């Protein structure tokens, strides 16, 4: 492992970065993650993040609505008439 890092440091920055990632990945990432292409991992991660974000927003909105009494919701809707023009 030390040889890999040493050789990597003599090459361009991209190669030394790859060597550092290889060393770190042995401690932090499983083999299953390493066997997938990076772009596939990133797309999966962004899908998960957007799904979680939309779920959280919906949960906050529904919780906010459920915590108000029905009369308060009705008066809020009535006090804000729709502008159809």
From TrEMBL:
<protein>
    <submittedName>
        <fullName>8226_t:CDS:1</fullName>
    </submittedName>
</protein>
